[in-house]
Amino acid sequence: MRAPAFFDARPPADGLGKRGPDLMFKKILIANRGEIACRVIKTARKMGIKTVAIYSDADAQAMHVQMADEAVHIGPPPANQSYIVIDKVMAAIRETGAEAVHPGYGFLSENSKFAEALEAAGVAFIGPPVGAIEKMGDKITSKKIAQEANVSTVPGHMGLIEDAEEAVKISKEIGYPVMIKASAGGGGKGMRIAWNDDEAREGFQSSKNEAANSFGDDRIFIEKFVTQPRHIEIQVLADAHGNCIYLGERECSIQRRQQKVIEEAPSPFLDEKTRKAMGEQSCALAQAVGYTSAGTVEFIVDGDRNFYFLEMNTRLQVEHPVTELITGVDLVEQMIRVAYGEKLKLKQKDIKLNGWAMESRLYAEDPYRGFLPSIGRLTRYRPPAEKANDKRAVRNDTGVYEGGEISMYYDPMIAKLCSWGPTRAEAIEHMRVALDSFEVEGIGHNLPFCAAVMDHPKFVSGDITTAFIEEEYPEGFMGVELPKETLARIASSAAAMHRVAEIRRARISGTMDNHRRKVGKDWVVSLQGERFEVKIKADKKGATVKHADGTKQRVSSDWTPGDSLAKLKVDGEKLVLKVEKISGGFRMRHRGADLKVHVRTPRQAELASLMLEKTPPDTSKLLLCPMPGLIVKVDVEVGDEVQEGQALCTVEAMKMENILRAERKGKVSKLNASAGDNLAVDDIIMEFE
Q1: Conformational region of residue 644, where left means phi above 0, alpha means psi within -120 to 50, and beta covers everything else
Q2: Per its record, what are the GO molecular function terms (predicted)?
Q3: Is residue 311 among the annotated active site residues?
Q4: What pLDDT digit, counting tens, does each position of 194-229 carry?
Q5: Of 311, 324, 652, 657, catalytic
Q6: Contact call for residues 599 and 495 (beta carbons, < 8 A)
Q7: CATH number where 378 lies
């Protein structure tokens, strides 16, 4: 077999892609940003390969820029003026002499024109051949190929759709509900579910707009939305010598707006027979299109384990770490080796699934505001320590740091927290502790929600579908109500911690003579509507906390006042709390609950019970901007009567369009913003009579 062009030791005519005489790339450019750029750099460094980062104005101080050996500025913050401008990326390659390019995911990772430009310049693309990208990267084309290869597919309309009315007609023929998808889409962008004609019209236009803005391609197709589905995908690895293997599956059913939130490997639902069938079918499809590199074949699986091909992602998946954790295979390294032309050293019989892995995606989205995007500076960013042994592993793939800025121009995902354990139950428990230990301040984020999912009975049992979030949190996420036994453990801990703080305050020098302060033993702890009367007996090793019902709890910890993270043991069991001092106690966060914990003397508690609670201001007649963003359009005018559920305006943030709707009937009395305005959180968009 003739070696690919990039093995030629002679430099191409334009000087791009010069290579050394030894058997691996000397330098690769990462055509991406954020955590995936950092992830690729780590493997390249391990392999002894130098790296080049590219960056926009917004990313001048980004982590991937600091980690790379070289960095090239490529333009303004918007991706369509920097990261996805092929000419600018090619200029960076020319400037640095990079021999190969890893595209990460998103941006140019599945852009056949970019792959063609690299091929023409003699630069290796660390991904599949152009033909495979064209055939599988386009959802419409890939469906047709799958059908021709006798792969079971979901019913749908594979042709292009001209306008909203045609979308409605096709939707009726397929039968509601339907999924409206961008042909070039990914990451949940350009996707809508429609249950009726109105939603089909509205979803078609929104999907088309998002697709144009995110991918520069507004083609749309429609398929049947399968109810009660699971989203399960197969990781494949193929070389240019005809070898292809599968590395098990990933369960990706915990999604919000078709955007994955939590993934795991393997799936708690599949049996070995179904896994083998899906894996073999995935490899057959990959080989049918001449695929090479690390790709993913996605399926929708029903309750009877019937599976249907959805699409093939020809690039590295966001959730690839869970596969790496259960197989021990570095997928980025394999991609680089395949791109260099090496044969796969792994055979299918070598792939053993070891233990269980979980991934929680940390998004800059505020779960208490309907998961709307949140931007700003990370005033605190302290991930749990990474570790790995034969009993547990914690891994955090990230591209941010404390003091860094979360930009409005890019995807809201800022980290991927992963855990591994010998069993699913152990992997979940390790994830719970890791989430409790992850400190993030300065922005809204979804850590509380991820923690809540880890404790949800349905998730723990593995009884999940892609409708999990909308079914279990129909009114949105409002925090977690902890069980009373957990509140009792927190109350004991808070009392012991408060006692330590009080003793420190009592020892402050410069106090008046004969006014020595005495710290008592009796306390009343109130949190989440519960009241615990406790008595503390302390010694050098900890404190014994006795409750009013006679039960005792032993609390030990090395926490000192001012620490933002408390790692305690209550009756020998771990308890991790995020801690912030407030008047009369602490703000404590644990397992998705955000608690105001007041620790008072019995007399203080008696007086506090007589205090009136402050009521929040009335905003019922105002439409407030729920996140920083751009007003795309305003759908009403002053004097308009609006009905419940009616669209009022559209706000764009982090590449997603969000339609704001009326919560009740009313009449518009004033418009404070118009299309093109950039607004901050809680800016008033319009007022009602």
Answers
A1: beta
A2: ATP binding; metal ion binding; propionyl-CoA carboxylase activity
A3: yes
A4: 999 999 999 999 998 888 887 788 888 898 888 789
A5: 311
A6: yes
A7: 3.30.470.20
